[in-house]
Amino acid sequence: MLLSRAFVLPSLTLLAVGCTGYVTGGEGSAADDAPRGALAAPGGGLARSPGAPGAPAPGASPAPPAPAPASPFTCQPRPARAADGWRRLTEREYRNTVRDLLAFALRGWKDPKDDPGAIGSGLPFHLLPDEPVARGAFFRMNDDVTQGHVRAWYEVARAAGRALAATPARLALLVGPCATDADVGNDPRCLADFVARFGERVLRRPLDAAEIEAYRRNAYRDLAGERLGVDPMQPGGGVADVVASLLLAPQFLYHVEHGDGPVAGKSGVFALGAFELASRLSYHFWETMPDEELLKAARDGSLATPEGYARQVARLFSDTPGASTRVRWVMWGFFREWLELEDEDLPRPHLVRDTNLFKAVAGADRTLVTDSLPQTAVEEIRDLVTHHTWQTPGRLDDLLTTNLSFARMPGAPLGNGKTTADLPRLYGVAPWAGGAAPPPAFEPGARPGILTRAAFLVSGTAGTRPILRGVRVRRTILCDPIPEPDNNDVMSAPIPEVSAASTTRQEVEARTETMPKCAGCHRPLINPLGFAFEGYDALGRARAVEALYERGARDPARAGDHVYRQVGTAPVDTRSVPQVVLGDARPSGGAADLVKLIVDSRKPAACFARKYFEFTYRRAHDEAADGCALERLREEVDRNGLKAALRAVVLSPEFRERSFNEARPRP
Amino acid sequence: MKTIRLTRRQVLRGAGGCSLALPFLPSIVPARAHGAEVLPARQRYFVAIGSYNGGVADANMFPSDDVLRETQEIAPGHVARRGRLARQVDAAGTASVSRVLRAPAAELTERLASKMNVLRGLDMPFRLGHHSGGYLGYYDTTSVGLGPRAGEFTPTIDQVMAWSPSFYPSLQGVRARSVHNGLSYGWSNPAQRSGPVQKTERFSDAAKLFSRLFYTDPASSAVAVAGPARPPIVDGVIQSYRSLREGNRRLSAADRRRLDDHVERLRELEREVTAVSTRDLRQCREPMLTKEASHQAINSVIALAFMCGYTRIATLAVNEERYAPSGGFTAGTWHDGIAHKHNVPEVQETLILPAHQGLFARVVLDLARKLDVEEAPGITLLDNALVMWTLECEATTHSQMGIPVVTLGGAGGALRTGVYADYRNLSPSAVVSGSVFIGKRPCGLTWNRLLATLLQATGVPRAEYEKPEQPGYGNGWRDAPYTKAMAPGLDRDVGEYLPFLKA
After folding, report:
1. Chain B residues inside the 8 Å CB shell of A121
2. How far apart are CA B278 and CA B18, in angstroms?
3. Which residues of chain B have pLDDT under 70?
4. Which of A87, A350, A575, B326 is most solvent-facing, going by the fewest CB within 10 Å?
5. What is the model's pTM?
6. Beta bridge partners of B315
7. What percent of chain A has pLDDT over 70?
8. What is the ipTM of this complex?
9. A136 and chain B: CB distance < 8 Å anywhere?
10. Which of residues 444-483 of A touch B (CB under 8 A)?
């Protein structure tokens, strides 16, 4: 069948811009005459619609891979983008930094009353405002500073100051023995030394003489000025104000960077100073202030040398006990946010486990749907990522293809009073003992990679929700934009919870692929990806058939609920033309094929580059201006694997410089 | 400085669960609240409650058309209707104004019903789908193909009020100009009304809100941080920001803006930490504690804070799902599984209707009841307040044509109450359809006129918020089919009070 020009052009436009939801241009347009399911393919041919003749049977190998796609990024010299304002510390960074400062201030403590951990837990961190973050963004990118932040920072700083200066013992630890000796004559010097020493930690750089003097004078604020005989070193005295003033300084609360010398060939771009670089490194890998060794490297200039810098990078990124805990936790935070595994992202199937339909679908496995199932599922992904990043460093592809199971034994502690749900039973696999124990393996192709694990499959309903599965893969793994739905066509024809005659897939197709507005996105971008996972039910269990239910009368035993009766089964159809690369007509037989197409496309590497760039630089990427950095990251993860890419970002020139360019007015 | 001493222990006592130990107002509020004699005349309070999704059938949401006995031609060919709200009590002792607006007769009293308004026919006349701040004028980026010009976001009106010298002629005793949990957007530098429009500080639960408003000092109870109180140090902190701002170190324009914004925040902080209330705060000091569910606890904190003069503005985002009966909800999310099925009669009747009934009775009415205590002889906090409840969408989820609005309180005498107003133009020529609009809807009055009404009713004059070329509040964009359906001349009145409401 020949395609009309009127169809091909809008379709191509749609694919280019990520679909707009308006494919046909309204009723009666020429596009309405085009066959449903037809898509423009490269060369003007037709892509096969899902389930169309020629699509492979489930499990069959897909067609030979297309030639390796070109990188979406181009590295060309371009003007640096306009500078963003300094980012504030995130809540995690702020808490970590205050905690580490308390430990530094009271190092050598012996009396349990002076335990910095206990003191820290008494500070009013609960006043910190919630940190909402937009979907697809990272907490680090949230730079809103509200009145609540300023108020909370103030109260924490004041409380910390009072706590540190509360007793002679703490003053001695904080300021030094000169604070509590009998000689008041040494107090000015004693205070100045303290400000210089403690201030360097708080402001993350040495203070100049004027700053030392300004902060030192804060000790006399309530004493009508500094004068002979006035002692600010009393417990509860002015030292508290010195501490609080430092904890409220812009250089503490923000990632303040002034830059050093200009970067050759980059107008408006300056290299970071040694202390600024130390902070960037430390906050990127550890989400806290630089430690003594890093500060020392900044002080002695070694951080400015390639060897010295590499040494510090290796140390911060190392697997030594202290460092590995921090860097692993922080890097897991990147994956957790990237893969949308934050608590608020997770489905909550346990909320519906008592409904009749869910009972019918889950059967005996309903008891496995506990309130810890979502967290258990996330922990499995964490263990999987940890294994392929740190324990057996691998490639991004491994996350998508591994057949290793990290489903722990049920009843393992989750750290919040809950214990792991019985994921192995849902999977039908032996439990993993954790730690160094070898993880059991699934049958080849049975459950490749993260996309076929509970964290991505459990829907929170009795049905599978292929639309949401498809959206998640498209948006999160492939980084393709999908517009939000903006009409209620689906609402006027809602996808029923159950059907006695149709599979979930058939219901979704009928309601999203027949109306042009919906079909514009659903048919090429969303549904084919979601349908590939129909071989897994709403609990993440593998299945070959889907049970069909009939909804009966109201259940007198459960208000608002109905009686459901299974009336038959239907084979699940996992075939589709997923268009991992838009316009690619190659079909997929199911999840394993789809994963292979995804891996072949190399799109996850580009997606990783975009996401890790944003995590690192705390801002949205600009595909043109940031093309070089993005391409380096993409190449690194593609060639050298996850661990190397996570580390390599700090070795790039962009990490060590800052733009001070001004925003150009819009034309 | 006179302060309320609530210990950390008190604050945290109930914070571990879904309920929180908080003051139960009816038991602690005297017949006449303290300090009334020093209050400025009719100072006003504002609360906006926004619930998500909508999808409440018109027949459930609105009173019967039978009460709409008066008409007014508000523009040539556009006849609006109004009537008195009628409260009916059934044999079971349930009072109702509509199927949604109902509660036990002892709670939805005749007195409270007479302080209500129900408004129908208020439209966001452009493509929106979803929003999280459009209730109050910020049509956010989750909207697709937004009619309003991209990037031109306006603060929500609670922030206009919060920084209005007319709303707050005195900030004495005010600890937070406004509090909210998710609907509010303001300038990054609200004092100067400059910088990007961003989310404002939000509280996630009653404990956070309580801490924000009533927190003073942990020293009295937290042994680990014990130490005597110290005088404020804000002025010295401001100096450190100025030094950096005016020093010779390299700064980008964005860095300078960041510092300027922070200095303004510090000035506000200085005001907050030195705020001295002129009211008698004894009732705030040692409240009787009881346990309430989260929204009711938040209501208690808001009412107590209003009474103590700690704030006068609050906005709440409430998920109606929480008030749905349990058992029949089998979908993954309320939005997809229930709200999208609003036109399935069974879903409407067994889930959407009771959820909104519960939300009205247990959130909206609960707050109104807690505010209905005397602030001055014969005048309650509610009389001086404007409490608004509205929904993200109208009867059809994703659509914003004819969004229901319910108000309680007289805004210090500025508003008439007891009114059911229907602003829809029911003439055949005023049907809006096509383009970005879902189905066919009668053209009503635009949302920016509602926002202008709310601002004026709470004492904010037009000069403080209106752009010369654009009457009403904020975004005046309309998509073409809407403009075409509008009666001629209606444009001119967009900055005026909504008909029937001005006292």
Report:
1. 224
2. 34
3. 1-41, 140-152, 216-230, 277-293, 326-333, 435
4. B326
5. 0.85
6. B48, B180
7. 86
8. 0.86
9. no
10. 459-462, 465, 468, 483
